[in-house]
Amino acid sequence: MSFRELKKPKTTEGVSPARQVTGFIAKFDPSIARLTRACRAVIRERYPSAIELVYDNYNALAIGYSPTEKTSDAVFSLAVYARGLNLYFMYGRSLPDPDGLLEGNGTQGAFIRLPSVDTLAQPKVIDLIERAVKRQRPTFSATGKGYTVVKSISAKQRPRRP
Q: Is the pTM of this model over 0.90?
């Protein structure tokens, strides 16, 4: 076996993106998995035309929401870690944040911790999400149904459970 073969991710031929994402989420502690599924359902309901861009990366599972299949067009994403879940804004540092909700030291991105699905229902969080959506170009389609695209799967990953 060559070095190159060791680096290849597990094959996913014939497995639907939906089933792949279900498997990615199932790797996490049951409480984190439940929270991820609940938050994902809320976002899918609010933005039914959004395309889910999924990256099962080394550090985290990232589920981005975009009007296109381009990563740079993603408005926000769910970043799932072994110890919790964040709502990550790709261009969060350029968003007005009068309530100081955004965390992180990045020069471009910023996040909100999601200790429960109820956080997504808080008016200040909804307002921040809507500001991000309104600034995005291109925008989410007003009609149609989104779909899921698995963009990458890292062959090597940090443990998904604490």
A: no
